[in-house]
Amino acid sequence: MRALLVEDDPSSALLSTKVLESDGFAVDVATTAQEGLTCARVNEYDVIVLDLGLPDGNGLSVLQALRREGKKAPIMILTGALEKATTVLALDAGADDYLTKPILIDEFRARVRALIRRGGAQRSEQVVCGNVVLNRLTRQLFIQGVEVSLTAKELPLLEHLMLHRDEVITRSELLERVWDMHFDPGSNVVDVNVARIRRKLSDAGADIRIGARRGMGFILCPADAPLA
Ligand code: CA
User: Fold this and answer.
1) For 109-144, what is each residue's pLDDT tens digit?
2) Percent of the chain at pLDDT above 90?
3) 72-76, 92-96, 179-183, range with the lowest pLDDT
4) Looking at residue 78, what is its pLDDT?
5) pTM
6) Distance from the CA of 10 to the center of ligand 1, in angstroms?
7) Which of 3, 23, 84, 203 has most Cβ atoms within 10 angstroms of its Cβ?
8) Where are the alpha helices (DSSP H) in the chain?
9) CA dist., res. 25 & res. 118, Å (int)
């Protein structure tokens, strides 16, 4: 899952990033309204966390522009304590939820999860492929009903493949979705993680595996499908 955080205050941005990353999000941080708008236009996000007080304008204008352009990502607004009136404007303009700063970590986490849960089919809580079940909210993976532990990068990588089970997914797409947009594309980090996930799937008796398409990328396939 991928999140965009539009926040100019460095300490607040750092805290929110840590919370989102620990919940399995790849996080892009934008520090101005303009930068936030650009990121949200170029990339697809599962959630956008938007501060209203930004150096080059009000986050409200970002929200309005995105909704006008038909962007449907769930948007969580962060407001200062004295901006109650703006909160109503933001909800009217298409924000999905809001939190008043300073944010409480547990509440922030719970509200982001709730947004994703409400976000429609693509964001449904459970993804099931054969005997492999991934719970996107609790970040748990079960194979044949037994929990299998995956690392903070293995889990979103497998999640992305499960969500796009009939598509070949390129390395660069995985780098972008699971790591962040500035990651070195020459890295072998995708292959290393894919190898580890393959081993965990087969050790636990999964009836799916990660297949490779030479020069193209990866695709989920039945465990007994011929090797490509
Ligand atoms: Ca601010």
Assistant:
1) 999 988 887 764 345 678 889 999 998 878 899 999
2) 56
3) 179-183
4) 92
5) 0.62
6) 9
7) 3
8) 10-22, 33-42, 59-68, 84-92, 105-118, 154-163, 171-178, 189-203
9) 17
State the distance from the centre of ligand 1 to the C-alpha of 7, rounded, in angstroms: 6
CATH numbers and ranges of domains, the chain? 2-117 (3.40.50.2300), 126-222 (1.10.10.10)
Instruction: State both tokens at 120.
Output: 């429609």
Residues in the chain: 228
Q: Are 126 and 135 in contact (CB under 8 A)?
A: yes
Distance 182 CA to ligand 1 centre (A): 24
Amino acid at 207: D
Q: Extract long-range pairs of 35-43: CB within 8 Å, 24+ residues apart.
A: 35/6, 36/4, 36/6, 36/62, 37/62, 37/65, 37/66, 39/4, 39/6, 40/4, 40/66, 40/71, 40/73, 41/66, 41/69, 41/71, 43/2, 43/4, 43/176, 43/181
Tens digits of per-residue pLDDT, 136-195?
Answer: 878 899 999 999 999 989 999 999 999 888 789 998 888 888 887 566 767 788 999 999
State the chain's mean pLDDT as an integer: 88
The rounded Å distance from CA 75 to ligand 1 centre is 16
**Residue in this structure with the two tokens 């695709």, named with its chain if needed:** 219
pLDDT exceeds 50 at position 96:
yes
Residues in the 5 Å CB sphere of ion ligand 1 = 8-9, 51, 53
